[in-house]
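Q: How would the C-alpha cells look for this protein?
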Amino acid sequence: MNFEHINALKELLSSPKKIVVIPHKNPDGDAIGSTLALWHYLNIKGHKAVIVSPNDFPKFLKWMPGANQILNFENKNSICKKKLEEADIIFTLDFNHLGRVGQMTKTLEALDTAFVMVDHHQEPSDYAQIMFSDVNMSSTCEMVYHLISNLGDADLIDHQMANCIYTGIMTDTGSFKFRGTTGTTHRVIADLIDKGAEGTEIHHRIYDTNAPSRLHLLGRALNNMVILKEFNTAYITLSQEELDNYNYVKGDTEGFVNYGLTLEGVRFAVIFIENKEEGILKISFRSVGDFSVNDFARKHFEGGGHTNAAGGKSEKSIPETTSYFLSLLPQYKKLLNA
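A: Here is the predicted structure in C-alpha cell form.
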C-alpha cells in the first residue's frame, strides 16, 4: 500500500470524525463485507460512522454483524442525504468510479468532502483525495485487512470484523479458487480464523441456504443456456417474466454465470438478465485464462471489472443484445481458441 496515503489517512483519522462508508450499487459479498468491517473498525476508533448503500443487498448477506444498521439510499433518501452532507470523510469501497452508485452519483459529485477510495478493480477514476487501488488484490476485503494492519491496528480486528472480511474474500475468490488468490490471501484467511472467523458457518450461510424458487430459477437459467463451441463460449438469458415466474429476489442469480465455465472447453461465459424497472439488461462476464472480459465489457457494454470477471449493461432487448453479442465473437475467435 502507498505509505504516503497511509500517513495521510492516519492524519485524517487523528481526531473523531463523522464518516460515511459506501459500497457500490447492487452490493455483493465483498462490497458488504468490506464496508461492514471498516464501519466496525471506525466506530471502535471513536468515529461516528454509518454505511449508506445505494440500494438493497441480498438476503444471504443480511446475517452479517451490523448489516441491520446499513441505510438504504433508495428508501431512506432524506436521512442518507443528510448523513452524506454532514460527513467529514466519505469512504468508497469496492468501486472506483462514482457512476457505480446509481442515483447517489449526483449527490456525491456535489459534495465538498474528503473522499477515500479502497478498491481492487482496473482503471480507477480520480475523484478521491486518498486512493488505495490494487488490481492484484483478491478482494476489497483483503485490502481492508491490510489497511487496518498498516494503520497499526491489526489487534483491533475482532471476530465480527473477521467474519465480515472472510466473507468478502471467500465470495470474491470463488471460495479461494480464482487466480487472484495468493499465498498472502491464505495467510490473511488463517489470521482471520485465528481471530474468530467461522469459515464453515459463513460458507453455509452464503451457499447452502437456497429457497426452492431459487433452485427452480437456476433450472430455468440452465435450460436457457446456449453453447457456442466454435467460440468456446456459453451464455444464459433470463427475462423479467421468467424472474417474476420464479419469485426472484435480489441475489437469486448470484453465481449463475459461473456454470458456463464448468463446461469442458468453455473459456467465456455470459449471463444477460432483464431488469424492466431500470430499463436495462444487467450483464455478467466470466472467463478463464488470458481472455480479458474487463476489456470486452468496457469496449462493448459500458462496463468493466477484472480480467476474468466483469459486468456491463445494455439498454436494448434480450434478442437485440444477444444478436449484437454474437456479432462480436468472430473478432475474438483467435483469442477464445488460443
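The two ends are 35 Å apart (CA to CA).

Residues 33 and 164 are 4 Å apart (CA to CA).

Upvote if useful.
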